[in-house]
Design brief:
Keywords: Signal. With about 220 residues, this protein is mainly beta. It is about 5% helix and about 50% strand. The chain has two domains: about 80 residues, OB fold (Dihydrolipoamide Acetyltransferase, E2P), CATH 2.40.50.140; about 110 residues, Calycin beta-barrel core domain (Lipocalin), CATH 2.40.128.
């Protein structure tokens, strides 16, 4: 399979201060935990950041367990203290964490996770995409060619409601508010169909790359 890239994520809802040893609060999505580590870290993606929450007991009692028990891409609201802030990530000591019921984007974001190949391409196609958390990455010949932050919503940057889930993609390091905006027509275990919601690119259909296919 394609190599997994580090999480760096974007969500529409704004956060408060993002400075070292300062309080932070907002909404985000649970993007998974380390498979190994000492301590183990679990992650919340929100507003261009990947917040790492350690199992070391620094967070309020029970909050790490609550976070780690959430379904992948489960929506949460949180409060805490940020430490060791980097450009796109920081450690987070949680003081409050609550699952958000009825989030309109959670199911779609969960269905997107994984590696995809354009349907019109042959099985040995060099073009693939990979969605990890709120990262959308494009690959060609096994090398990542671009990476984008995903902002889920119901409208692109122009504010026109699309009557469904749209994914605004902003290139990491780019200056534009968004580089693409896709309306999700279908996202399930095996198929992904998106429609260009800001241009004339039409529909693009993908099939999931299974683990035993390689990549």
């Amino acid at each position: 399979m394609l190599a997994r890239a580090a999480l760096a994520v974007l969500l529409i809802a704004p956060l408060s201060v993002q400075a070292e040893d300062k309080p932070v609060s907002g909404r985000g999505y649970f993007t998974g935990c380390d498979a190994e580590g000492d301590p183990i870290y679990c992650y919340i993606g929100a507003v261009g950041f990947s917040y790492a929450v350690g199992e070391d007991g620094a967070s309020a009692p029970g909050l790490f367990d609550t976070l780690s028990a959430l379904p992948l891409m489960g929506a949460v609201s949180f409060e805490g203290q940020v430490e060791d802030t980097g450009e796109t990530s920081s450690d987070l000591v949680l003081t409050k964490l609550e699952p958000v019921a009825g989030d309109p984007f959670e199911a779609t974001l969960h269905a997107l996770q994984g590696d995809w190949r354009p349907e019109e391409a042959s099985q040995d196609s060099s073009q693939q995409i990979s969605v990890i958390g709120l990262d959308w990455m494009t690959y060609k010949d096994g090398e990542m060619s671009d990476s984008y932050q995903i902002a889920p919503g119901t409208a692109c940057a122009d504010g026109v409601d699309q009557s469904g889930v749209v994914l605004s993609l902003k290139r990491y390091g780019g200056d534009a508010p968004e580089d693409a905006c896709w309306k999700v027509k279908l996202a399930d275990d095996g198929h992904l169909v998106v429609q260009d919601a800001k241009g004339d690119g039409g529909e693009v259909a993908f099939t999931r790359i299974l683990d035993d296919e390689g990549g």
